[in-house]
Amino acid sequence: MFPSLEATQRVQRLSESFGNKILYDMCSTYPEHIDSEVVSGKLWLIGRAYSASLERKKPPGKSTGDLYRQVTKAIVESDIDKQITALKEKRIQHLMSTDDETISQILHLHNSFIRIVIRHVEIGKRSLASKYLHFHIPELIYIYDSIAAGKLQAIYPRLRIKHKFSSQFDYTYTKFFFKMLKLRDELISQHELLLTPRQIDRLLLQY
After folding, report:
1. Is the CB of residue 100 less than 8 Å from the CB of residue 177?
2. Does the pLDDT at position 207 exceed 70?
3. Are 10 and 191 in contact (CB under 8 A)?
4. Nearest residue to 145 (alpha-carbon basis) of 46, 77, 58, 74
5. What sign does the dihedral 181-164-91-87 (CA atoms) show?
6. How confident is the model at residue 196 (pLDDT cuts 50, 70, 90)?
7. 20 to 30 Å CA-CA from 109: which of 65, 77, 133, 177?
8. 101 burial level (CB within 10 Å; 0-12, 13-18, 19+)
9. For a pLDDT cut of 90, what percent of the chain falls above it?
10. CA dist., res. 1 & res. 103, Å (int)
């Protein structure tokens, strides 16, 4: 069922929770991935706050401390900061669904995070990747979780994505991302309301 005007208006009026403000402020104040302690702290706080912690389903025999050290080191040594900076410098507040270049950059960033984590956890942590990156680029990154994905599937059971995106990046998140863009655009068309990625996430979780 498509979200009603009343539900959409209600979400748009909601103020952000204090806890989420803390996470946004943290990533705004400490946006870079240079200091291992900062990176590890961001991973831990965002993962725990959003039920997507790095240590969930960790490999047998690997301690939580070792896991955080290994993933943190890999992130610090990666080009994630370069990718995040390139997206921020575009200063996009409203991502067009036809902006293939920017969409490709977003999906590549998400996929890069997954590839880093999967080396150490054996599963990609798709949800953690989206949640962690969202707090660094809140205007462009949609938050993935199973509840939101299920609601989107009910609204768009047969949405097809562009072939060039389907094999390059994480397929499940790519499909989810295009459904979120479509929902955002249809909310504008039907209700004349523009919601942020965070507001759309709240909308899907509440109705």
Report:
1. no
2. no
3. no
4. 46
5. positive
6. very high
7. 65
8. exposed
9. 84
10. 27
Structure tokens at 150: 């299920």
Ordered DSSP codes for 169-201? S-HHHHHHHHHHHHHHHHHHHHH-----HHHHH
Is 8 exposed, middle or buried, given 0-12, 13-18 or 19+ CB atoms closer than 10 A? buried
Q: For residue 1, with 0-12 CB atoms within 10 Å meaning exposed, 13-18 middle and 19 or more buried, which class applies? A: exposed
Distance CA(106)–CA(137), nearest Å, equals: 10
Q: What is the pLDDT of residues 4-53, one digit of tens each?
A: 999 999 999 999 999 999 999 999 999 999 999 999 999 999 999 999 99
CA 135 to chain CA centroid, Å, is: 8
